[in-house]
Prior knowledge:
Layout: H1 10-46, H2 49-55, H3 58-69, E1 70-78, E2 84-88, E3 105-108, E4 111-115, E5 121-125, E6 128-133, E7 137-144, E8 147-151, E9 161-163, E10 167-172, E11 176-181, E12 184-192, H4 210-218, H5 229-238, H6 245-277, H7 285-300, H8 303-314, H9 318-342, H10 346-354, H11 359-397, H12 401-411, H13 415-445
Helix pairs in contact: 3-13, 6-7, 6-9, 6-11, 6-12, 7-9, 8-9, 8-11, 9-11, 10-11, 11-12, 11-13, 12-13
Amino acid sequence: MSTVATxxxxxxxxxxxxxxxxxxxxxxxxxxxxxxxxxxxxxxxxLDVAGLAGRFRPENAVVxxxxxxxxxxxxxxxxxxxxTTVAIKGERRASYDATHLPGWVSRTGETTRxxxxxxxxxxxxxxxxxxxxxxxxxxxxxxxxxxxxxTVPDGLPADWLSASNTRFDITVPGAGRxxxxxxxxxxxxxxxxxxxxxxxxxxxxxxxxxxxxGRALVSGxxxxxxxxxxxxxxxxxxxxxxxxxxxxxxxxxxxxxxxxLGTFGAAxxxxxxxxxxxxxxxxxxxxxxxxxxxxxxxxxxxxxxxxIILSRAFGPGPLTGSLAILLTDTGTxxxxxxxxxxxxxxxxxxxxxxxxxxALQRGRFGVLPQIAPVIVSQLLYMxxxxxxxxxxxxxxxxxxxGLLLTQAMITQTNWEDVSYYIVLVLMLVMTMDSLSGWxxxxxxxxxxxx
Length: 450
């Protein structure tokens, strides 16, 4: 039976090594969390998180959310002339005429009664306003040449009221708002939905109920002689004077066009350049280095920076946005395609070379089939991604849905328009995602996506 000689100093050295490594790992177990904690504390001070929390106004967020999914109708009485107007959002172009007032507004002479959703009601007449609050009592307001006075029942929350010598405001949650000045009295009534999204006040279909619209589609007489009711409805919806669906969908198409031109243009330019950057296709080291640094430069500069530079050179417009996407994606595609070229199976190319195939034939039948899955997958993914990015780029260069989105946000009042545009962008992105997935299955697997 044989024995194995061992070094008596081997075990102590191994023990010291194990203990040393264990100590370092235990130390890192404390140092790493402390480092992360220190960074988070620094970031909290650098980003002024405490100040941001102090400046947060939840009431502004509530108003924004309410304006995104609902609208206000203003009923205004001129305290001098006695004229009363009913308008959505107080806009003149969205004013009801006296013969087509909403059902919750009734007029008797110079007196106007506004029924509110919670059972409350406001009665307006020149210089007088009465707010009958359900379960709370009655607020009477008088506006005269010397100011505005009001009598308020006991028990109303103080945050509902705002009063001065020249103005009185009361806002009842779930009901509405009454504002009275020396010159006018106004009631604001909120309702769910996007007002006049289907038909504006100039369309005869706006004043029809949904059952009446259904009957007009099926068997009703022509609303406009010589034009079918379906055609008239589609025309009135498309040329809606409040929502401008025709302009919105044209802008949406511009956004998609920017993404399409930029993405496919980058792929067309990036693929030939990728052959110059691949080690197995370009033996010249300096040329390969130069092309790779070009790719780094193009994709290293963000698309928004390219947008600003190009807008100074070419002016605003959708084409400028397309060029910005093209430059950034050329660098991205060039890098991805060159790496795919370096990982191809050389045996297929050697087999074609042995049959006498020239360089073009070897590329067509030996190279492209191998990298086609990468090209298709990356192309479709970038197209989907650039559809979102084109919205932001369009806001900078004045093109596409991004421009309309920016204009609506600047007003600080048209939040329902902002919601509409965001919904359209989301629907476009989801459509592009579904379409790209279907195309990927068709082109790469040859079967439908389940």
